[in-house]
Design a protein that fits this description.
The protein is an alpha/beta fold. 42% of the residues lie in helices and 13% in strands. Helix 9 runs parallel beside helix 10. The longest helix is centred in the C-terminal third of the chain and has 37 residues. The structure holds pyridoxal-5'-phosphate. The site of pyridoxal-5'-phosphate has 12 residues, from helix 6.
Length: 543
């Protein structure tokens, strides 16, 4: 074996090379385990992020003249690991998963095979897994697996972009050649993810033609406002091509009424003689809860708590209509406990893809040859990673029930956190409904949430409360290596008495997706908040 070959896995499956590779894996796992501490968020100490931190890296980085040994390489690798946040029970900031073991194995096999998911000749495993998970998940959400199509792509945001492009191309097939008409419009809730904003820019539809619909108090889209704004667009000569229905808003888990949206669109299409308006269900956050679509709440075989069942039943009402959407997405790297990036974009009718497919003469490398029967020339990517393999292994290892259990646990921990928070603080309000995320807002004195929602406060008052919360977030953020809470500057918009401009509301976020975040941990989260609230209020008195 020559020196270069030593840098690679074996060609013949010999034991010596296998043992060497295994040895490296073992070293890495051991060193990472040594850094783990369940009472801390980080693996070892957090680096001191001085102002010149990245600048110093820029100065010192250089490709070595001669390659270093694997031991030194691993040492350098471990330097990257040190201080990294580890997703144990101390991380309650966002839907950020600790990848489960089956998904890690799937990912490893993906890398070892290094298939190119662009076509099956170069990546048979990924093609097989992609077709499999597309069928599995189509069956869960109620798409006909013989008619649906799916592919993994660059996140929930990629799914939004792909769907908007599909919507435009479906209605204006010539736009691929001629560019898009200037009077196309898309609609979304004012609380939807910024994915559509970027997609409006990138497709050329233009952000000015993205209409933001008001949200209700439960953070779902206000359907009357949708009708009003759509009518206005049509009246002015615009053509609605696309509605984004958010199934679980990123910060508050608000769920749009997909069924209601569809009824409205049917009516408007008929009255104005329009082509069907495309609906993408942005289920990046909430999609996993379709796993309860067939759950038997009457017999409750997994014995979920009553309060948990009540929420799940409410979800079922919405998620059972997922199959109304022209497309949707499963972001497994959010609530599905898999590594980045594992997003499956699902399309109800695969015939729609013909509007995006490249002409055979334009793809000289793939597809136009006599062999291979799966090639994804309709994706925006050319080479693609086979991330469907980790989705596949996770679905196998968890099964429907495993996912139901972990998804129910998110709710249980949140219910417990909400109860404890209300019990321990007199100056806090919970500002969203029970879900995998709890948003909460503190007040310098009395709780004024109701008055805020009713628009009874002044700009100054709301701004002061926002500042009080932002300062508190800064304070607890200093100790984010102990417990890491999330926050958002704009949970929603509220009216004020002295201006027509609605103001954003600053809140804290408690988001649990770690399997190690259990009900038993809740008292720790509360104590952490209490200690810091004391410090916060004392510092205010001093000023
Ligand atoms: C997270 C999120 C996205 C973006 O998904 P990525 O996987 O991060 O690209 C889009 N929409 C919603 C509702 C989200 O919560």
């Amino acid at each position: 074996m020559n020196k270069l070959q030593q840098l690679f896995p074996s060609a013949d499956g010999n034991q010596q090379q296998r043992d060497e590779l295994l040895g490296h894996f073992k070293t890495i796992l051991t060193k990472m385990d040594e850094l783990k501490d369940p009472s801390k968020l980080t693996l070892g100490e957090m680096p001191n992020y001085t102002e010149d931190y990245y600048n110093r890296i820029i100065q010192s980085a250089l490709v070595p003249e001669k390659g270093v040994s694997m031991d030194v390489t691993i040492e350098k690798l471990m330097d990257l690991v040190k201080g990294h946040r580890f997703l144990n029970s101390n991380y309650v900031a966002n839907a950020t998963p600790l990848p489960n073991i089956a998904s890690i194995l799937g990912n490893l096999v993906m890398v070892l095979l290094n298939g190119n998911n662009l076509w099956d000749v170069d990546g048979s495993a990924a093609a097989n897994a992609e077709v499999r998970v597309t069928s599995m998940l189509s069956k869960i959400i109620g798409y006909d697996p013989n008619e649906s199509a799916g592919y993994t792509t660059w996140g929930g945001q990629g799914a939004v972009f792909n769907s908007l492009r599909l919507a435009i191309a479906r209605q204006f097939p010539e736009s691929n050649k001629e560019g898009i008409p200037s009077n196309l419009y898309c609609f979304c809730s004012e609380l939807s993810h910024f994915s559509l904003y970027k997609s409006a820019e990138a497709t050329g539809i233009g952000v000015n033609n993205m209409v933001r619909v008001k949200a209700n108090d439960d953070h779902s889209m206000d359907l009357n406002d949708l009708i009003e704004k759509m009518e206005e667009v049509i009246e002015n000569g615009g053509i609605p091509v696309y509605v984004l229905a958010t199934m679980g808003t990123t910060d508050t888990f608000g769920i749009d009424d997909l069924y209601g949206i569809k009824q409205i669109l049917k009516d408007i299409e008929q009255r104005h003689n329009l082509e069907p308006v495309y609906i993408h269900a942005d289920s990046a956050m909430g999609g996993m809860y379709t796993f309860f679509n067939d759950y038997d709440f009457k017999n409750n075989p997994l014995q979920f708590e009553e309060e948990v069942c009540a929420v799940l039943k409410q979800y079922q009402v919405h998620f059972q209509h997922m199959n109304i959407a022209d497309s949707m997405v499963f972001d497994f790297h959010k609530l599905g406990q898999t590594p980045y990036i594992t997003s499956l974009f699902l399309i109800k009718d695969k015939a729609d893809l013909k509007y995006l497919d490249l002409d055979a003469s334009e793809t000289p490398y793939v597809g136009s040859r006599g062999y291979g029967s799966y090639h994804t020339s309709y994706t925006l990517e050319c080479s693609r990673m086979g991330s469907s393999i980790s989705i596949y292994t996770s679905l196998l290892a968890f099964g429907l029930e495993g996912y139901q259990q972990i998804l129910a646990n998110y709710l249980l921990v949140n219910i417990s956190f909400r109860n404890a928070l209300k019990k321990e603080f007199s100056n806090v309000e919970l500002t969203n409904g029970v879900s995998p995320v709890t948003t909460f807002r503190f007040y310098p004195e009395n709780v004024k949430w109701r008055a805020e929602l009713d628009g009874n406060l002044t700009t100054t008052e709301v701004t002061e409360i926002n500042q009080y919360n932002e300062d508190f977030a800064e304070l607890i953020g200093l100790e984010r290596d102990v417990i890491f809470f999330g926050n958002t500057k704009k949970q929603r918009l509220i009216s004020v008495t002295d201006s027509s401009k609605r103001l954003p509301v600053y809140v804290h976020k408690f988001y649990t997706t770690s399997p190690y975040s259990t009900v038993e941990e809740v008292h720790r989260y509360i104590s952490f908040l209490k200690e810091h609230m004391d410090i916060h209020n004392k510092s205010l008195v001093l000023i």
